[in-house]
Amino acid sequence: MERGWRYSGGVDLQALIEDNARLRREIEALKAENERLRRALEEAQRSGKRQAAPFSRQAPKANPERPGRKAGAGYGPCCRREIPKRIDERLEAPLPEACPACGGGVRETGVVLQYQTEIPEPKATHIEFRVHVGECRGCGQSLRGRHARQTSDAVGAAASQLGPRALALAIGLNKGLGLPYGKTRAVLEQAFGLRASRGGLARALARAARKAEPSYRSLVRAVRQSPSVTPDETGWKVGGRLWWMWAFATSRATVYSIQPGRGFEQAARVLGADYDGFLVRDGWGVYRRFEHAMHQTCLAHLLRRCRELIEIGPTARAQLPRRIRALLLEGLELRRRRDTEAIRPHGVAIALGRLEQRLDRLLQIEYRAASNRRFAGHLRRERSAIFTFLRCPGLDATNWRAEQAIRPMVVARKVWGGNRTANGAHTQSALLSVIQTCRQQQRPSAPLFQRLLCAPRPLTLRLAGR
After folding, report:
1. Each residue of 277-290: pLDDT tens digit?
2. Is 96 exposed, middle or buried (0-12, 13-18, 19+ CB in 10 A)?
């Protein structure tokens, strides 16, 4: 039976009409998709050109929450500054002789207390060391005395130097807080009246790094011996050329290493090519070359990629990232239940097996969309490292440790760019490793640097021990 009437040439007019309507619908859908992708591309291009701060990435919320503390029970814990345990100075605040409102007489009814914690008036202390020199009666070798507070044996043109407390502060400002040498010099001069040049500060910090070299090497050994390491890397400029700052973080220590490459050779220079602990890392292929290690890929990176694919892709193409996202979130929820003892180890093993079966079924499909093919290929390469954290209690599911270690250096990179020489890059790595390790252990770094600076020779600090 014919579908409709035909022309003499045998053309089905009804079929042509239906095909035309279908093609029009497809064209309208493609136009809408093209417009959406054009807007997304423009927004991405604008975002890439924005400064990191203070601009926000998205438009403000239409109905934002009220700023400040909530009223009533939702206020949260009430805190106040503690009353000082030691009082160094007492001052009286007497009543006025007459009432400022009416001029009447004043009668005292009591005394209330108020406290301030103030810094002393900054004042530089100038010290003269009378260094005694002599020689050995037996062999004739020249000898020179050294005081425990000296930072150097230099005399003559280099006899006037900054003291250990001043240099420790300069290290904290420049390496710990990311201030360039010029602003570090300005802080020392404005706050304490200490005059120094940028070059003098750079040379002094280089001397501190040489004295900290044994401590830096001990941190490298501690990272290599750690049962779990979280690495990450970011771009860094040395002499105007692109180098890479590597960060290797453990629960007790962090090691930085600025190197001219981003490959396995550079990573192994710190971690060791035969590292056999747990490696919690992102999807950078270099990390998979540590064949002796147990790997855990960062779930935060995978979830972020799922979100991006869902946002930029049509509904049909977003099925894979939606299902992967659901699987990863179920894995994190299973970890929460395990850690709160809401499920027994046998139940965790069964649930984990089901998650992996669902993941394998998704990865066996051949996807038509190029974005899904790339994502599925990445997941196949990372398949064995996705749920390691569920087999090993206490193992992180994300590389947050290294991300936190990298973040301050990203800020410093925006402020002053990087280092001018390879020696400066190594100074940055050594001193920053000591500072970040002290931060992790919640101990001040300034006393350690003062001890290093006053030591007559390089010293190994006990930083990575428990």
Report:
1. 999 999 999 999 99
2. exposed
- Residue 300 in tokens: 């935060």
CA-based R_g, the chain, Å? 32
Q: What is the pLDDT of residues 348-402, one digit of tens each?
A: 999 999 999 999 999 999 998 888 999 999 999 999 999 999 999 999 999 999 9
Q: Residue 338 has which token pair?
A: 């395990």
Domain ranges of the chain: 146-290+413-466, 299-397
C-alpha angle 138-139-140 in degrees, rounded to nearest 5: 100
Cis amide linkage into residue 54, ω under 30° from 0: yes
The C-alpha atoms of residue 361 and residue 375 are separated, in whole angstroms, by 15
Half-sphere exposure of 239 (CA within 13 A, CB side): 6
pLDDT digits (tens, 9 = 90+) for 161-208: 899 999 999 999 999 999 999 999 999 999 998 999 999 999 999 999
The burial class, CB within 10 Å (0-12 / 13-18 / 19+), for 363 is: middle
User: What are the b/e assignments for 403-420, b being 16+ CB within 10 Å?
Assistant: bbbbebbeebbeeeebbe
| 360 φ, ψ (degrees, to nearest 5) | -65, -40
